[in-house]
Input
Amino acid sequence: MSNLSELGEFLRVRRASLQPEDVGLLNYGIRRVPGLRREELAMLAGVSNTYYTRLEQGLSKNASESVIGSIARALNLNTDERAHLFNLARPGKTKRRTLTKPDKARPGTLRLIRSTFTTPAVVLGRRSEVLAWNPLGQRLVAGHLDLASPETPSTRPNMTRMLFLDPHTRELYSRWQEEATRAVASLRRLAGMTSDDLELAALVGELTMKSPDFATLWAKHPVENCMSGLKYMHHPEVGDLELNFEVLTQPDESGHRILMYTADPGTPAAEALQLLRAETDVPTAALGRRAPSHSEMWR
Output
């Protein structure tokens, strides 16, 4: 995932998504290709057509901040998309990563989520791999998997992979397309920040080959830093849920995040979550012993 080639593709996709009237230009005649022409975008950004063309072709390595900022304004990029553009155009110095020990959640993080019996919580690694979850978090998002599965790298679930390749997870989300777009947007943002991440490149390659839905979304270059919002679920045990989610990013460079789910008080979702909590065998699960009935409703 070369930053320069990604830069060119990102610019082309976003340019194609804009119509002349979107940016205050008159539209004369029939266009052979959708969206703005290169010369129109270059004019709006205040750069030469030749220079902008080199950017789209991945031939310019030294674009100034002012030029990238002008192009971002011309493309009407939002804050997350603008940051992504800068990451692609002016990447920091990177070094090829060597093999390291398998990632794992910090002991303090584990103590935190395990002490929270009433709130579903999932600890995610940099690439959305599940490093840990509390019993209620596992029961909510992956009741068909073993509670201990995140403890071993070979059995560790990945939330994005499950979303596209696991039928149970796909059925869990009432608004699957919305959830899928959000997942791809987060992955695109990460790819722009870490072009040397071989595991991430392998994940993207796998999903592109195995999921046409992923490949289609990936080609659209959505970018978003998804920190909070709503998730709409249809849980096999307690039915429909409209849950708030918050992503707590740890302040170190690990890329670990804690994903927590809550329901507004007095809502059907709160009652459903309480029912799910009542049926979750916390003492047994906390010791790592799987309650035998948890997976039955997912099959």
